[in-house]
Design goal:
The complex is a heterodimer. Chain A has two domains: about 150 residues, 3-Layer(aba) Sandwich (Rossmann fold), CATH 3.40.50; about 260 residues, 6 Propeller (Neuraminidase), CATH 2.120.10. Chain A has five helices and 31 strands. In chain A, the strands form seven sheets. In chain A, strands 2, 3, 4, 5, 6 and 7 form a six-stranded mixed β-sheet that branches. In chain A, strands 1-30-29-28-27 form a five-stranded antiparallel β-sheet, with no helix packed on it. In chain A, helix 3 packs across helix 5. Chain B is built from seven helices and four strands. Chain B is an alpha+beta fold. Chain B has two domains: about 50 residues, no CATH class; about 110 residues, 60s Ribosomal Protein L30, Chain: A (2-Layer Sandwich), CATH 3.30.1330.60. Classes of the chains: A mainly beta, B alpha+beta. Chains A and B meet through loops of A and helix 6 and strand 3 of B.
Chain lengths: ~450, ~170
């Protein structure tokens, strides 16, 4: 179990009074690494030093432990191994104080140093440096000062620094400033309460968005990150709805007789693909959100569901049993032509694609009958299962294509799982005393730190 | 050979009587018959004799179970649904909501579609007995509302079901 460590300041009481440091929310996801602990690039993230200000009250205000957040972000991405610095006795304050031999010995490839400077009026400057241990006599890879930041911005700032580090070293944009949505189910007296929750990608800052006594399903972030489409069973009927995150307003989009389900936003955010069975069997329709015009995309008597837009916006992947059993197909928007994509196994569903369109992620039933998350290389057709429990479901991909969140059934509860695309690094994310399902990863969100 | 022909004749007569049941007279002392508005012959409608006690018992049974990956109705399911169909025909102010469910295996949205197949199988059978389409509503919950939350064959069998629930027309 990876424990998230916080630096406790001298006055413990005041620390307890501050925001966010502890797991207080009922629907928070906890992170537990279950495989591939040490597979990443070794990095040492030193605790940030804090300069005292003239005002003693400032020293008593607990701020988020930036180094701990960065360290956990990088480690939990599966691409870095954040070294344990318990026994480190070096305290370099700057890149020119770094004894590279010491860090090489420790096995670190990179070192992160940071400084928090109190400005005295409740604001802080935050400096940080990313140092490549193996590049002697070189400037730090990153050397930056963020000016006039307030404690309530610290957590988000730490995630931004993690993104910068990730991008600098791997060349790929980090997902640490993204968010996730998921649905929890809690027994309360005689009822089950269903809650659509959003949280930071690391599970912190969870906030309920919609809470009901009837089931909720299939949450999906809009491309601009401002809305979430979802399925509701209000009034014993299914409907597709959209909630605006900033004010909680819910707009009902579709409530035809029969199935209203599986909403999927077009890449430009102007259309919603969804599943309707009002004309007979479940088929894929595309709804123009402005004009409310509906276009039927698939037809026939089979089951057609789970639309997923190709990142280029010109075709939609979907699950269909038109061949007898559920498989994944692709329909071209310009002429309605359908192509089958999956040929391995008897059950392939819930399609999604990596941002480059080269890999298909899906729910795949193994020969032994287990339902697992699998990745299919679309150029070779090869399928690889990357999870191995009995009943997995609902994969959602990080916007940088490097991590999958999904649902897992355990003996007495449902939890979320996370896994890198090669299957090597795995995590388990339960919500305490609750059942959690159907995660949805947000797109990259706008950040304005400069 | 003769027995078979007799049996066939009996079936033909029974089915014919069942089809014509709506107008014919049945058991004179049947209490259900006295209160019913349109259906005069209980056995005529059912094609067999069902006592009022059994009828009441069947009316209180509102769940039909299904085999894995199937939306097929058994003969005993159809018998149960006949009783509910008659009840709907006798009570014009009622609507019937049929909710389809699946076990927990596989994709959630795909299971919504499978659940609908089960609910539709029930609704279509009831409609075939003369109930108007607008008296039936079909909804599928897929795997979202299991009866038994355990993760084994027993629980799964309990969850593959269609549930009948009466609603007021308004």
């Amino acid at each position: 179990m990876l424990k998230i460590k916080f630096k406790i300041k001298k006055i413990l009481l005041l620390a307890l009074l501050t925001l966010t440091c502890f797991h207080t929310s009922a629907k928070q996801l906890y992170i537990e690494i279950t495989g591939g602990q040490n597979v990443g690039i070794p990095i040492a993230v030193m605790p940030f030093t804090m300069t005292s200000s003239a005002n003693p009250i400032d020293d008593m205000i607990e701020v988020e432990d930036l180094a701990a957040i960065i360290s956990n972000d990088l480690h939990n991405s599966g691409h870095f191994h954040s070294l344990n610095l318990q026994h480190v006795d070096q305290k370099p304050k700057d890149s020119n104080e770094v004894n590279r031999g010491y860090w090489k010995n420790l096995g670190a490839a990179n070192l992160v140093l940071g400084k928090i400077i109190s400005k005295g009026d409740g604001a802080y400057d935050v400096n940080f440096q990313l140092i490549d241990i193996y590049k002697d006599n070189q400037q730090p890879l990153i050397n930056i000062r963020f000016k006039d930041k307030y404690p309530e911005q610290f957590r988000a700032l730490a995630h931004y620094m993690s993104d910068m580090i990730f991008k600098k070293i791997t060349g790929i944009r980090g997902f640490f400033s993204t968010r996730i949505a998921y649905i929890t189910m809690d027994r309360y007296k005689d009822e089950t309460i269903h809650t659509l929750t959003v949280a930071d990608a690391d599970g912190f800052n969870d906030k309920p968005v919609v809470s009901t006594t009837y089931p909720l399903m299939s949450p999906r972030w809009s491309p601009d990150g401002k809305k979430i489409a979802f399925v509701s069973f209000r009034g014993h009927r299914s409907s597709v709805n959209v909630v605006t995150l900033i004010n909680g307003e819910i707009e009902q989009i579709s409530r035809f007789p029969g199935i209203n389900g599986a909403p999927a936003w077009s890449p430009d955010g102007n259309k919603l693909a969804l599943v309707l069975s009002k004309d007979g069997s479940p088929n894929i329709y595309v709804l123009d959100l402005a004009s409310k015009q509906l276009r039927q995309l698939t037809s026939g008597m089979s089951i057609n569901t789970e639309p997923y837009w190709h990142p280029q916006g010109n075709s939609i992947l979907f699950t269909s049993n038109r061949g007898g059993k559920p498989q994944i197909y692709q329909v071209a928007l310009h002429n309605g032509e359908v192509q089958r994509l999956t040929f391995t196994g008897d059950y392939n569903a819930t399609p999604s694609l990596t941002p480059d369109g080269k890999k298909l992620i899906m729910l795949h039933q193994s020969e032994k009958g287990a339902y697992n998350i699998a990745v299919q290389d679309l150029s070779t057709g090869k399928v690889k299962s990357i999870t191995n429990a009995r009943l997995d479901e609902s994969p959602t991909l990080a916007p940088n294509g490097m991590m999958i969140l999904y649902g897992m059934r355990e003996t007495s509860q449902t939890v979320l799982g996370a896994v890198t695309l090669d299957g090597r690094f795995r995590m388990r994310l339960p919500v305490q005393d609750s059942n959690v399902k159907e995660p949805s990863w947000s797109p990259f969100l706008l950040e304005d730190w400069q | 050979m003769l027995v078979n022909k007799f049996a066939t004749l009996a079936v033909v007569v029974g089915v014919t009587m069942g089809l014509v049941g709506c107008g014919a007279k049945g058991g004179a002392n049947d209490p259900m018959e006295d209160s019913s508005a349109g259906i005069k012959s209980v056995s005529g409608f059912y094609g067999e004799h069902i006592s009022s006690e059994e009828e009441l018992g069947l009316l209180n049974k509102k769940i039909v179970y299904f085999a894995f990956d199937s939306s097929e109705l058994t003969n005993s399911d159809m018998r149960l649904l006949k009783v509910h169909a008659k009840y709907l025909l006798d009570h014009g102010k009622l609507k019937l909501r049929v909710a389809g469910h699946t076990d927990e295996r596989g994709s959630r949205e795909y299971n919504i579609a499978l659940g609908e197949r089960r609910a539709k199988a029930v609704a279509r059978y009831i409609e075939s007995l003369g109930v108007a389409t607008d008296k039936l509503v079909v909804v599928s919950y897929g795997k979202e509302q299991p009866m038994d939350t355990a993760s084994n064959e027993q629980a799964w069998a309990q969850n593959r079901r269609a549930v009948l629930e009466y609603e007021d027309v308004n």
